[in-house]
Amino acid sequence: MGVLEQAAQRQARGQAFALATVVRTVSVTAAKAGAKALIGPDGSIEEGWIGGGCARAAVVKAARQCMADGRSRLVSIAPKDALAELGAAAGEERGGVFYAKNSCPSQGTTDVFVEPVLPSPRLLILGASPVAVALARLAPSMGFVVTVAAALDEHERFEPGVQRLVGVAAQPEAGESAFVVVSTQGSGDRAALKSAAAMEARYRAFVGSRRKAETLKRELALEGVPAEALAAIKAPAGLDISAISSEEIALSILAEMIAVRRKPERPPAENAAG
Predict the structure, then answer these.
(1) Can you give the residue ranges of every domain in the chain?
(2) For residue 28, with 0-12 CB atoms within 10 Å meaning exposed, 13-18 middle and 19 or more buried, which class applies?
(3) Which of 70, 100, 103 is nearest to 86 (CA)?
(4) Counting Cβ atoms within 10 Å, is residue 167 exposed (0-12), middle (13-18) or buried (19+)?
(5) Could you tell me how many helices (H) and strands (E) the chain has, helices first?
(6) The sheet that has 163-166: what strands, in order across it?
(7) What are phi and psi of 147, to 5 degrees?
């Protein structure tokens, strides 16, 4: 099976990987322009070939970084003299290019473009409030795969295509990269908040006032729910855009989720400023 066929299968299964493509070579190199490799999350080259050990270590390192922050990288593996001519040092990033030293006897230069292919982010909504319904409708347009957890008789409120779970308590682990929003608004607030606190998600938020959330968190802390897990749940959910309607509140939450999702892809200077 070729690299692209393997990549298509992995993407269809929602599995993360990085695709490395040799885009330029100078002098003698093991791999030639156009060579490709599929790299798994653990750094293993699962299909294809992009050169020997001299190039492989730098490309694998870049691939793992790509899958961690979602940013593509151009890696230039060059001999010491070539790096010196460019005024670059091994391990340096400049102008969007990451430089690595080629210590192989061939002393050629290989430029490799490494791009992450990541599964769509998952959003778990606990509750069936009007905000939950609006959020479940809007989120797929921004690439989120939505699952809602609500009472069985509330499932009909949601549009077709949304995955459904029965009840808001004791939900299965969403995954550390998932987004979790509690939007019960009076119907099972405590159970849903306790369920969210037990999850290792990238983003957890509660739709409701800060005062209400603090009261519920205090009660759950007395029941033994770890304080740090409760503190990680943002309340109220969403960016402050003076939202009033359910749709506006859902939009503010979606905007906040996008900001969290895309933050690793922004240059470090922008992250520091924002």
Answers:
(1) 3-117, 122-265
(2) exposed
(3) 100
(4) middle
(5) 9, 12
(6) 163-166, 145-150, 122-126, 179-182, 203-206
(7) -125, 135
Token pair recorded at residue 266 = 């922004």
* Amino acid (one-letter) located at 110: T
Look at phi and psi of residue 122 and say left if phi exceeds 0, alpha if psi is from -120 to 50, else beta.
Answer: beta
Tokens of 93: 């990033």
Going through 130-274 in order, the beta strands assigned E by DSSP cover 145-150, 163-166, 179-182, 203-206
**CA-to-CA distance for 114 and 73, rounded, in angstroms?**
5
Q: Count CB-CB contacts under 10 A for residue 136.
A: 27
**Distance, CA of 227 to CA of 233 (rounded, Å):** 10
Neighbouring residues of 200: CB distance < 8 A, sequence distance ≥ 6: 173, 174, 175, 176
Count of positions (residues) in the chain: 274
Reported pTM: 0.71
Q: Which residues contact 160 (CB under 8 A, 6 or more apart)?
A: none
| Stretch among 27-31, 48-52, 137-141 having the lowest mean pLDDT | 27-31
At the topology level, CATH places domain 122-265 in: Rossmann fold (3.40.50)
pLDDT in tens, 50-94: 877 777 888 999 999 888 888 899 999 988 888 888 888 888 888
Does residue 173 surpass a pLDDT of 70? no
pLDDT for 175 beyond 90: no
DSSP state of 165: E
Q: Note whether 118 and 67 are within 8 A (CB).
A: yes
